[in-house]
Amino acid sequence: MNHVRAAIPRIAASLAAVLALALFPALAGARAGDDHPTGHEAHGQANGHKGQKNGQGKSKGRGGGKELNVMTRNLYLGADLAPAISASGLTAFTEATGQILREVTANDFPVRSQGLAEEILKKKPDLVGLQEAALWRTGPPSLEVFLNTGAKPAAQTVRYDYLAELLAQLNKGKGKPQYRVAVSQDEFDFEAPANENGVAGDGPNGAIPNAEINGRLTMRDVILVRNGAGVTFKHPQAGHFANLLQVTVSGVNLTVTRGWVAIDAKVRGSKLFRFVNTHLEAFDPATQVPSIRALQAGELVAAGGPATTSLPVILLGDLNSDDDTVEPGDQQAYRTLLGAGMRERSTNSPLGCCLKSSLLAVGAGGSVADFNHQVDHVMTRDPKEVKLKASYVTGRQPVRGFWDSDHAGLYSALYFRR
Hints:
- This protein is α+β, with helices and mostly antiparallel strands.
- Helices cover 18% and strands 28% of the residues.
- The N and C termini lie far apart (42 Å).
């Protein structure tokens, strides 16, 4: 079951449903190979690969100051949103959104953030692109936002701030902070009423008698920069796509906001380059041509897009697309990028997507066998300049009783050829 299709219920649910919506949805050692428009360059085994970096990112035999290390990490928003989007009627809807809140709690991001931080700290990427850096908040029960009355999301009581939790773990007990935020952008932001406690009739709002709370989900894309590693950056940028998915939930029309974040960076004396992190639409019918995510990919590489610049470009993120591990309809976005000259700079062996269980606790249904396709990628628009030294997958085994995310992480050691 491919993640793009499997992710539809989750995203949709989020979207449509309620507090959680817009979301979304490997690696082994690799070698730099010949550029090929439809192939992946990196293959091999992660453990003990001869191309592994030495020290603080200086490459053996490549010359110091030319290597840079990057990582893309989808944090998983924490719930299956399908029950909310498929709910019929207000009572079923508030029950479903309550289930989503309970699932987010059960998936315990404070614990998962420890494993995610360990993945990052072990590899020490200079730049990290995060997707689904969710911010979960609660407030008094209300239908105003959900009904598109013009009211803006208002819930402010923070329950889980994935970005703050992850940064706390990354910088815990390290003296000076190891990582800082270069740029962060809010994507889909939505809230809706929920019967989280499962008690009927205890809600204070007579229009939604079972809902005792509103849940709010704000999705974010983020770039982190490693401190003390010779990384400098300027021109933090962010943008939303013009092509966005429109969905209808219980008769209410919703728009799923997605976009990208970028910086212009130098790493240990390298040339200046553009670093772009994105999360393309997941809830597309495979039969739609062009798909929403393909149109979004086209925006990235169109004139004036973040991946179209005089600088060398490194693009990474959750593309919800690939050229050979997903069904044909879901290959459109990736092939759009290939057609614009983008080339792969990460491995597809082993595969890194995605757990089929929405619950990440050990024994809750997830298995390493679920990682059977690829949607997370590291790419470049300048294959003659940006070469691949090694690529690795992280997070394919649970720790502390949980998988870190429904995705594995993807890390690539790159170097500028000249």
